[in-house]
Write a structure and sequence with these properties.
binds iron/sulfur cluster; binds FE2/S2 (inorganic) cluster; four-stranded mixed beta sheet; globular; disordered N terminus; nine-stranded mixed beta sheet
Length: 484
Amino acid sequence: MRMSNNSSTRYEITLLSRPGFTRYTRLHEDCARNRFVLLAPERAYELDPISLEVLQNIDGLTTINNLCQKLSEKFTAPLEIITRDVLNLLQGLSDKRLLQEGHNHLTKKTASGTKRDGASYVSAPTGLLAELTHRCPLQCPYCSNPLELERSNNEMSATEWAETFKQAASIGALQLHLSGGEPTARRDLEDILGYAVEVGLYTNLITSAVLLTKDQLSRLADIGLDHIQISIQDVVEENSDLISGYKGALAKKYAVANWARELGIGLTINAPMHRQNIMNLEKIIDFAVEVDAQRIEIAHIQYYAWAQKNRAALIPTHEIFLETVNIVEAAKQRLIGVLNFDFVIHDHYASRPKKCTGGWGQSIIVVTPSGTALPCHAAQTLPGLKFDNVKDQHLLKIWETSPAFNAYRGLDWMKEPCRSCDRREIDYGGCRCQAYAFSQDPAATDPACALSVDHASFAALAEQEAHAPAPAFVYRRYDGLSKK
Ligand code: SF4
Ligand code: FES
């Protein structure tokens, strides 16, 4: 049994354990929805009153035994039942790597909270993806940024971002993803982060890591950075260089991952999957374990923007895709309590689509470097939509009334077969951007769905491209990288 979450074995909760939260986990008062949630990397767990009571009482000092006795007396409930429920709850959180044995001086002491302006926004966004800049030293051929990259002289200032964060938090956003391009290319990143922490947002830095220094990461941790997501192109050096178009990125990522863990920052390794790195999936999982990441995202890439341009160079065969499913399933079992997996399967070989970005206009807002608010990061590829800018309109107005956010929200826009399908409120018809990219109809059923009229040709195209020799990459280039 390990006594902390800082090694590669599972932390088992027993009656003698004294669990506390890790630095990157905290209780949060979600004022916009009148509830408490547990904030963690990429997640906000809703808590029932009993779970909240338990979590308000774990401090890294109290044993489970003492905690259960106290709860049993307080609620005049049988000790065995309380003990069973507490152990189940805490073991589940421990397996997500959110707890550690003993008190951690880095852990935030009190529940955080977002301010509200008196209104309740139950159906407001829970996340804001802030593309701080499109500048990036890497050139990944599957980048999710648009083909037309925004120039640095149009980027919003730190104070304009501050106002956006304030508005987002006031209407119920919980998680902030600081993304790019490469967000650390911004000289004022520390100011920007400070504004986010001030309004109570859970902060996630999505980075290639190659520009970060240990001192800078340490300052970001001091300001309050909760979590870092490091993207990995491959763990074989030459291939990492080839895919990223950047020499020596892997060693830097390894160093930054280790600094993050030293500083108690939550760590996710993000590994987009495609035919040019898929053979190293097991080694990529080993890398995540070695750097003590809590999570790994293994996502077969989606084919729009740069990835669509490079589709023939990136798409794997169906057979190889199936191998990744087996590898991930076996690793999940082997690594319970050590590494958590988010696995996104390959759309061309799926039978049902994903609920893309949590449903159009339902959970996130993407804001581009110049302040354009989007329902998803590829929304500008769709025809006929006009997008508002956060510099001109309050975020709430954009969220509630903007025609772009309402265009594919809910069910009214759907055609058959989605309109009468019993999964329509599960996946909301899948991805609009993929539907348009393949079928030239943004209201079509996502071709990843086996019920789509385009599904057979969608899957066949993938197999055909995957079996042909891979063409050279068209790299995503951003000339003139400089810190602003
Ligand atoms: Fe989802 Fe539409 Fe397919 Fe039904 S028909 S599973 S709603 S994409
Ligand atoms: Fe735009 Fe899926 S990426 S809806």
